[in-house]
Amino acid sequence: MHGLSFHKRKQSHLKSIIIGCIVLIALWIGGIIWIGGRDVARVAHIFSTLSSSLESIKSDVEHFRYSRIQDSLAISRQALAELKLQISSAPTFTVSFSPFQAYQKETLTLISLVDLFVSVGYDLSKITIPLETILLVQEGDSHIKELSEQDKKRILDILTSGLPSITGSRASLDLLLQRLEKISDTSLPSQAVPLKQALYNHAQRVRDILDAAVPYLSVAPALLGHDREMTYLLLFQNNAEVRATGGFIGSYGILTLRNGEIKSFFTDNIYNFDDNAKHLRIPPPKPLRTYGGIRAWYLRDSNWSPDFPTAARQALWFYAREGGTKKIDAVLTLTPDVISSLMRIVGPVSVEDLNFDPDQLRDQLEYQVEKGYERRGIARSERKDVIRLIADELIRRIAKLSIVEWEGIFGVMRARLAEKTLMAYTRDSDLFQFLKDHGWSGEVLQKSSDYLMVVDSNIISLKTDAVMDKKISYTIKENDDGVLKAKVLLTYTNNGTFSWTSTTYKDYVRILIPQGSSHISSPIPLEISQEHGKMVLGAFIEIEPQKTGTLSIEYQLPKHVEEDVKKGLYTLFVQKQSGVIGQEISVVAHFVRPIASYSPLIGSTSKSELGSVEFESLLQTDKEYSITFK
Q1: Which pLDDT value is given to residue 188?
Q2: What does the pLDDT read at residue 151?
Q3: DSSP code, position 534
Q4: What confidence tens digit (pLDDT) does each residue in 605-620 have?
């Protein structure tokens, strides 16, 4: 009986111990759930705060409220510090049961990337806020106030001193985006996924802005005459009368800048300048003399070379030889297409009761300088002063644009530099190297692959290029022995009539092909020479109004191109002639070996079959075609 009583008491103690343990475990689990739930709610709130801060920064940038950005950055930095504390410093027993435990590593990585983005924001705000203070009429207004010369100097000072920070920020954003792409959504708590996406979008947007801006910011101070005068020789090329680097130089100008301020600017009829040098009698290039009857060479014909740096140096030589007195630092050349593009942003221009529309500018200008000036009672020597008047009005209008509208100006500059209707040359070796690196120098490029460049030069044919349709057809064919035969077919259609603007098209065409090409044949005589590391095939053609003419040339490509094909790759680089707009190009390739891939796939119509591929497009910029073999 006593033993039974002892046994019951023992069972009772055991039950009490078990119940006590269960209660303690329940309390422990309950505490964890309460603490974990509290932490989860707090962390989720912080994630939401960070996303809101990023949106605020984006909104402030878009609405030019730069002074508010640092407030949003401060909120972000405070939230980040609390988030790190919540995730990395929570008690081990809590974190181990927290829903964030499985995501802790990638969440901390995301936090570090947000922190990096915030640091970039701080660095950039140190530049943008002072600029905003100088530039804008008031905060939140995108319009630029009238700037004094001192204001412009301060802007250039800020850009110069801030460039290392800007380029460093761009590098940081590249690193941020690369690391962010490696974080999958499944490796993050659901509350963090919107933050990751917002961070990616905002970082990419800022990086893209910096990518577009840095090339200009790198050279803008020097080009705008930061702390020194920068003087440009301006060459206005009319591509309705095509010449090697864009068009006949009908007008020229001198522009001097200091700290972004125009110190002097004038334009003049090129003949007024050349007439002072008639005594020089410098022999012109042979085709100008032979086919155009031109007996002396002047600045107006100086752009004979298709290599713009060479043509620019030739222009500088003529400027000095013909009596130019200004010390020139750089040469800037442009066609009417550049002016038209700017007018599409600022609107039509009216000067001296003359109205100029961007879509009709070339024709309107041509009429005024050839016919209209007489009716307006203007001397022939002053008939091209209207170009200066238009330029003055454009400069005045552009200065009043908002920052948003300036994005359009930069877009125009990039597009026109790419198509080479706008080009620059500078004596400064560092600046010139920058132009080369960005493909803005207009030089004949050196390529180890197959290469083609067609260069037309209108010789005494009025403005007939304005009514010409031109097409380049290039065919390459590989025979069974691996020999590569090329054929260039140029088609010219003269849509004009005999008038004061158009006539029979007389063109000295040069076709630049790889050095070492051989077995050249053509139905008409060719003038063969070597220039700029290329073999140059020259010919003179004439196309009467309402007629179509062709020029066909065949040749064998050099051995090094054949060797590339045997190794599995064929590349053709087609360089666009400066200033020419709307030219069609067709490339057809036939190989004995099957094709594995080809490019470009975008921007042209292409089709392939077995060992053949065909491309058709407009030649708006330089093009590179690539084919790989199986």
Answers
A1: 85
A2: 93
A3: E
A4: 666 678 899 999 999 9
Residue 536 token pair: 């140059």
Rounded CA-CA distance 107/110 in Å is 5
Question: Distance between CA atoms of 545 and 525, rounded to whole angstroms?
Answer: 23
For the residues 238-254, what does the mean pLDDT come to? 97
Question: Is 73 within 8 Å of 61 (Cβ atoms)?
Answer: no
Supply the pLDDT for residue 334.
Answer: 96
Cα dihedral value 606, 609, 613, 617, nearest 10: -20
What is the helix (H) or strand (E) element at residue 78, kind and residue range? helix 66-88
Tokens 């690539």: give the residue.
626
**Closest to 406 (Cα-Cα) out of 347, 346, 459, 359:** 346
Task: Tell me the angle at which helices 193-223 and 2-62 cross, rounded to the nearest 10 degrees.
Answer: 30
Tokens 């064919």 belong to 477
At 310-337, the pLDDT tens digits run: 999 999 999 999 999 999 999 999 999 9
Report the DSSP beta bridge partners of residue 555. Answer: 486
Query: What are the backbone angles phi and psi of residue 270, rounded to the nearest 5°?
Result: -60, -30
Q: What is the pLDDT of residues 508-523, one digit of tens each?
A: 999 999 999 999 999 9
Q: Check: CB of residue 247 under 8 Å from CB of residue 315.
A: no
Contacts of residue 279, defined as CB under 8 A and 6 or more positions apart, other chains included, come to none
Is residue 93 predicted with pLDDT exceeding 70? no
Q: Which residues contact 308 (CB under 8 A, 6 or more apart)?
A: 245, 333, 420, 423, 425, 441, 442, 443, 578
The DSSP letter of residue 467 is G
Token reading at 184:
């999958």
Average pLDDT, the chain: 87
197 contact partners, CB below 8 Å, separation of at least 6: none
Amino acid at 192: A
- Nearest residue to 191 via CA among 119, 98, 116, 118: 98
Q: Which amino acid is at 431?
A: L
Q: Assign 199 a pLDDT band (cuts: 50, 70, 90).
A: confident
Alpha-carbon distance 325 to 471, whole Å? 43
The whole-angstrom separation of Cα 562 and Cα 535 is 17
Say what the pTM is.
Answer: 0.84
Strand arrangement, sheet containing 422-426? 261-269, 248-258, 229-238, 330-334, 422-426
Query: How many angstroms separate the CA atoms of 553 and 620, rounded?
Result: 23
Residue 179, both tokens: 């690391």
Determine contact, residues 426/329, Cβ cutoff 8 Å: yes
